[in-house]
């Protein structure tokens, strides 16, 4: 197994899938300003995915392009977190999913800027600027909704209760991570987990939201075991490349 290629797929698939999920809000945002904001978040993630997949194709050395990796794999070949493929639901559900992911992604990119792999460090440095805004945006919405009306509070609490089971996978590690960590390519997840937990708890407290007390966990995305939602998403995401192979804009 090429550990670097595998890790790049995990990083790129997270960006691609959550980017596509956010794109589904285009034209459906609760207010015009937020419709535009969420669409721009989507574009940021798709841009990240393009950079990561381009490098992954070089590392793999089989001539596959960023488009090939994005659009021409089967569902079991995707390595994204289960969290990012979950349906949008209402706006509170989308923002909670985003908040939990952004809170993880920011410290990860901060650490990756010091990677011994210069390309990963450069991608992380560029992506970090966007990610800081993403986290600010989603955090403000969680506080606004959680500490808002009774209905907004209850809805976003339900979203937290639903999505919390997927957060353990944010810090999943295996032989791929161990190899790359020992060579200085990626950081340890322990420090990132601690920073994530501290920040998430602070925001949830301000939002008057309660962390679920159960210990339910759902993992598998890093190994290609996905929820039923990914298949439906890929059918839409991949349609043009499947119908017209090699098509370019």
List the helices and strands and how they pair.
Elements: H1 3-23, H2 32-60, H3 66-71, H4 82-85, H5 91-112, H6 118-146, H7 150-163, H8 175-182, H9 189-206, H10 228-237, H11 239-243
Helix pairs in contact: 1-2, 1-8, 2-6, 5-6, 5-7, 5-9
User: What is the radius of gyration computed over CA atoms, rounded to a whole number of angstroms?
Assistant: 18 Å
Oligomer: single chain
Q: Tell me the CATH topology.
A: Ferritin
Beta-strand residue fraction: under 5%
- How many independent structural domains? 1
Q: How many β-strand runs?
A: 0
Mean of residue pLDDT? 96
Question: Could you explain the architecture of this structure?
Answer:
It is a single chain. This protein is mainly alpha-helical. It has one domain (3-210, 227-243): Ferritin, core subunit, four-helix bundle (Ferritin, Up-down Bundle), CATH 1.20.1260.10. The chain is built from 11 helices and no strands. The protein has helices at residues 3-23, 32-60, 66-71, 82-85, 91-112, 118-146, 150-163, 175-182, 189-206, 228-237, 239-243. Helix 2 packs antiparallel against helix 6, helix 5 (91-112) runs antiparallel to helix 6 (118-146) and helix 5 (91-112) runs antiparallel to helix 9. It is globular. The two termini are 33 Å apart. The model has no long low-confidence stretch (mean pLDDT 96).
């Amino acid at each position: 197994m090429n550990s670097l290629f595998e890790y790049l797929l995990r990083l790129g698939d997270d960006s691609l899938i959550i980017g596509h999920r956010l794109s589904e809000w285009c034209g459906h945002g609760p207010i015009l300003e937020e419709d535009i904001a969420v669409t721009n978040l989507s574009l940021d993630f798709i841009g990240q995915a393009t950079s990561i997949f381009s490098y992954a194709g070089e590392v793999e050395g089989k001539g596959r392009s960023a488009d090939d990796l994005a659009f021409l794999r089967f569902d079991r070949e995707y390595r994204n977190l289960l969290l990012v493929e979950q349906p949008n639901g209402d706006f509170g559900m989308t923002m909670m999913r985003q908040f939990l992911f952004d809170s993880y992604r920011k410290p990860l990119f901060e650490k990756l800027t010091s990677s011994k792999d210069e390309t990963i460090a450069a991608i992380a440095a560029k992506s970090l600027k966007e990610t800081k805004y993403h986290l600010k945006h989603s955090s403000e919405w969680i506080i606004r909704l959680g500490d808002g009306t009774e209905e907004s509070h209850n809805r976003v609490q339900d979203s937290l209760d639903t999505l919390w089971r997927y957060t353990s996978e944010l810090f999943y590690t295996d032989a791929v991570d161990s190899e790359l960590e020992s060579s200085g390519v990626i950081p340890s997840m322990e420090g990132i987990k601690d920073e994530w937990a501290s920040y998430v708890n602070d925001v949830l407290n301000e939002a008057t939201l309660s962390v679920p007390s159960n210990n339910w966990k759902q993992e598998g995305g890093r190994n290609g075991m996905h929820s039923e939602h990914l298949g439906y998403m890929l059918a839409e995401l991949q349609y043009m490349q499947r119908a017209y192979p090699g098509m370019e804009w």
